[in-house]
Each structure stands twice: as structure tokens, then as C-alpha cells.
Amino acid sequence: MSSSAVQQKILNCSEYGNGSCPESERSLAARAAMYSFMTGAIFLTVFGNLAMVISISYFRQLHTPTNFLVLSMAVTDFLLGFTIMPYSMIRSVENCWYFGLIFCKIHYSFDLMLSITSIFHLCSVAVDRFYAICYPLWYSTTMTIPVIKQLLLLCWSVPGVFAFGVVFSEAYADGIEGYATLVACSSSCPVMFNKLWGTTLFMAGFFTPGSVMVGIYGKIFAVSRKHARAINNLPENRNNQMRKDKKAAKTLGIVMGVFLLCWFPCFFTILLDPFLDFSTPVVWFDALTWLGYFNSTCNPLIYGFFYPWFRRALTSILLGKIFSSHFHNTNLFTQKETE
Question: Does the pLDDT of residue 2 top 50, yes or no?
């Protein structure tokens, strides 16, 4: 980080005292509007993904390898909405971090971990759909429950070790002149990645797995087009299975696309910021971070739009039917959907 950029940030901090918060420049109406909008996003994120978790966990008909991956991804989104977004909301609206430096590191570690965990889950789902559509005869022996458990362990452990290791070791700040002084006097929970770790985070945490997903889904849709041309010549049961697999791949492809659109600007800004002398405005970083958060809000809405079974499961949850004995064996699919 350039000396002048850091010194300017320190000067701005010292104007209102070490560790204290500046007086908010936003009007009461503006803060109320921001709180209302963000609270609505948090509500949809928490309860939408909680509905996904309950639906897949409760209904035995939904206990499939693919859905177990989707279940774990919904847990990721739920945790982001429940444990991360409320604190980020206060920081964004008030332009101040009230919760101390240690909790700042914990908060950012979980934030980073859950973001990378989401993309790892999407990679795993892409692999699952790849075998289901491109190698259907091998699918049942390849994507077994033990394999799914190993994938889930990988999805959670690698991002966790990376995020907590980098943040608590402060390796991300090595070589940034004046960063320690900025942290000591700042009340904004500053986290600035140097060139090395900004590039590492972008490549390992986003670009590489994102490229793998795009490549896999490209192959899946190429095979799906071949299936579409031959589908009328197949036996009825094989025909129906291919249709369902194609729909599942399309839906999960949309989920992947939304994820990339939501998180790419934030990751790309983290990559560029150290090369621009950390000149990116805080407001811009906040806006891009919340764009990424909205991905967790969108996922259950996408499933609700494309999957009637999710809407039926949600209705059963809201009506309290899941408290009835043996209701977990209920058929969530219509005859047309199971044919």
C-alpha cells in the first residue's frame, strides 16, 4: 500500500479519536431505508435456506446424493444470513464496527470461509451432475454416500483452514506499510489483502473452481443436446430420467450463474485493490459485498421457482404438517413429475 494512501486513512481516523466512530453522514431516513432493505434480505436468506434444510432433511423422498450436496449448500447460506449478515448490516449502515478487533477477525474469517465453501459446493454439485448425465451407468457406483461425505468434508475443511489461517496470521497484510497503525486507530474493521494474497484468494478461491464449473457445465449441456436429439428413440423410463437430469442440471446451472454474477465483482475488486494503492472506496466495497450476500438470498428463490416439490414442502412446513407422524414419507411429486 502506498505511504500516502495509508497516511490519509490514518489521518481521517485520528480526526475523531482512536477507535471511536465518526458521526454518521447519512440521514435518519437513509439509515432506516437501508436497515429495512437489508433486514428483508436477511429474513429471506435465513428462512428460505432454513426451509431448504428442513425439506431435504425431513422428507425421505429427497434423500439423494445431489440433494445432500444442496442441503449442505443451504446450510452454508443459512449460516451466512444468520451469523454474518446482521453484523455486516450494522457496519454498512453506521460506517462503524462496534464489536472489537478479535470479533472482527472472527467475523471476516467466517465470511470468507462461507463464501469459498459455497463455490466448493457448487463444484461438487457440478461433478455430481456430470456423472449423472454424461456417465449415467457409472453414477450409482461413483457418487455414493461415502463419496458425498468426502466431498462435503473437503468443501468445509479447506475453506475453513484457509480463511482462519490467513486472517488470524495476518499474512494478508504483510508488506502493507502503516497497516498496523491503521488497525489500531480504526473503528471500521479494516481488512486489506496485499498483492500476493489478493491474487491467491482470487485464483484459488474463485477463478479456478469457477472455471472448473463452467467447463463441466459446458460439457453437460453439450451432452444434453445430444440426448435431446435421441430422446424420442429411447425407452420411456430412460427418456423420463434424462428429462429430469437435464432439468436438474439447468436449475443448478442457473444457481451457478447467479453465484458467479454476485461474487465475481467482489473477488475481482479484492484482486485489483492492492494494485490500485487501496484506493477503492469503502462504500463500493460494502456494495459489492452485499451483492455477494444476495446470492444466498437468491438460491431458495430459484429452487422455489423451478421445483414444485420445494413449494409443496414449504407449504407443508408452514402448515405444520411435518409434525404429523409418518408425514416424512409423503410423496412430493405429481404423477407427471415422476413419469
Answer: no
Residue 180 and residue 48: Cα distance in Å, rounded? 40
Burial of 292 (0-12, 13-18, 19+ CB in 10 A): buried
Which runs of consecutive H residues, i.e. helices, occur in the chain? Answer: 3-14, 28-58, 65-79, 85-94, 101-134, 136-142, 145-169, 179-185, 195-202, 208-230, 236-272, 282-306, 308-318, 335-338
The neighbour count for residue 3, using CB atoms within 10 Å, is: 10
Where residue 100 falls (left for φ over 0; alpha for ψ -120 to 50; beta otherwise) is left
Q: Who has greater pLDDT, 99 or 35?
A: 35
CATH number of residue 235's parent domain: 1.20.1070.10
What pTM was computed for the model? 0.85
Give the Cα-Cα-Cα angle 110, 111, 117 (nearest 5 degrees): 80
Cα 190 to Cα 172: distance, rounded to the nearest angstrom: 12
pLDDT of the residue at 339: 42
| DSSP assignment string, 41-103 | HHHHHHHHHHHHHHHHHH-GGG-SHHHHHHHHHHHHHHHIIIIIHHHHHHHHHHT---S-HHH
User: How far apart are alpha carbons 253 and 271 in whole angstroms?
Assistant: 25
Full domain range(s) for residue 191: 3-338
What is the pLDDT at residue 250?
Answer: 74
Q: Which long-range contacts (CB under 8 A, 24 or more apart) does 137-144 make?
A: 143/65, 144/65
Residues 6+ apart with CB under 8 A from 179: 1, 6, 173, 190, 192
pLDDT tens, 260-291?
Answer: 899 999 999 999 999 988 888 888 988 999 99
Higher pLDDT, 197 or 184: 197
Give me the torsion for CA of 320, 321, 323, 326, rounded to 10°. -170
Number of structural domains (the chain) is 1
Q: Output the pLDDT for position 335.
A: 47
pLDDT at 8: 46
